[in-house]
Amino acid sequence: MIRNVNLTLLIGPTVPLPAPRPVLEALQSVEVTTAAGSPSGFQLTFAVANDSPLHTILLLAANANPTFLRVILVVTVNGTPDVLADGVIERQEITPGEKPGMSTLTVTGRDLTLVMDQQEFSGIPYPAMPAVARVALICAKYAMYGIIPLPIPPVFQDIPIPTDRIPCHSGTDLAYLNQLAEEVGHTFYIDPGPLPGMNTAYWGPQIKFGIPQPALNTNMDAYTNVESLTFSINHSEKEMPVVFIYSTLLKVAIPIPIPDVNPLQPPLGAVPPFPKKFELMKDTASLSPIAALGRGVARAAGTGDVVSGTGSLDVLRYGRLLKARGLVGVRGAGTAFDGLYYVQSITSSLKRGEFKQRFTLTRNALVSITPKVPV
Q1: Angle 271-294-161 (CA atoms, 0-180°, nearest 5)?
Q2: How far is it, in rounded angstroms, from Cα 103 to Cα 267?
Q3: What distances in angstroms separate CA 206 from CA 37, 80, 285, 326, 374, one per listed residue?
Q4: CATH 3.55.50 matches 119-204
Q5: CA 115 to chain centre
């Protein structure tokens, strides 16, 4: 669609195939949203005539039972292919155009978590199975979609004793996986790639370390590679949770403050904000000590990112895709805001002659702890 940028569209039930030429010629724009802590989504816009075969291919095939109509988007930038999205069609809309006989077909879809959110399996028991084993067992049912489970054990792992309690499935697979993740401060998402048709079902903490992506430069004249970049600080977000653990010996609930200390989410700045308030989590008194500590760690991690940045960039000028759920450096924003950030969300917009991305960055402190960032 653009020089040095090539889009590949695969579509079909379960195992998609390359889209026919009439479909590609009718494609006008693509938008894909990827964010930490929420499902990914995509939207395809087609310009079609009233007698176009797209009406039959997409509108009817998407409702075929028992499978969904699957869509895979692969974008190649400067010779490097990346799976931009892998999901299923959720909704289609037809809008009459200004020209007689022409319409706009908008196809909206979600990643493969939509497949996991269709059927309830409430009541299935999991005796003596920790949360990581339950996650792997649930995700194994979707191997036909190329989903490979990657569960990470929590810091405080609560293994149920069958004589005491037997955990049972609640709701759909997606709802239960999100429930298990929320209880221990983890997140669940499906990451497409690295090859078309392959997906990783990640259940674990938001890991905020690793090899950073090339830096985003602002206010650097010819070296500037972003179109806009704005930062903000929300001082009231930071709080320290206090969990209550019931002591059978003293017959009283003991309060324990939980600091924002997590080896998988190290500080990205040198000056962290001081907690403005304490949150008393009184409902943890009825849980086991391990489960109560897990809830506290989850709450502490969720309120630590008080520094955020929003902006946009041109992919060709940046030279590659900026990816969510990873680190990226920032240069030229000043002493307080330069350094490494966690990429919270990315919205990629691709149309003929244009490929841009809007992004949101987060960090838990001010002032960079690294003297240099990768460029």
Answers
A1: 165
A2: 51
A3: 9, 26, 26, 9, 21
A4: yes
A5: 16
Report d(CA 37, CA 203) in Å as an integer: 11
Pairing type for strands 199-204 and 147-151 reads parallel
Give the rounded distance of the alpha carbon of 11 from its chain centre.
22
Residue 329: pLDDT over 70: yes
The CATH number given to 5-110 is 2.40.10.10
What tokens does 239 get? 């709080």
Q: How many CB atoms lie within 10 A of CB 234?
A: 12
User: Measured between alpha carbons, how far is 233 from 366 in angstroms, rounded to an integer?
Assistant: 9
**Mean pLDDT score across all residues of the chain:** 85
- Assign 124 to helix, strand or coil: coil
pLDDT digits (tens, 9 = 90+) for 6-36: 999 998 887 888 988 888 888 999 999 999 8
Residues 253/289, Cβ–Cβ less than 8 Å: no
As beta bridge partners, residue 221 has none
For 132-152, letters b (16+ CB in 10 Å) and e give bebbeebbeebeebbbebebe
Domain boundaries defined on the chain: 5-110, 119-204, 206-375
pLDDT in tens, 162-209: 777 888 999 999 999 999 988 877 889 999 989 999 999 999 888 888
What local confidence, expressed as pLDDT, does residue 215 receive? 94
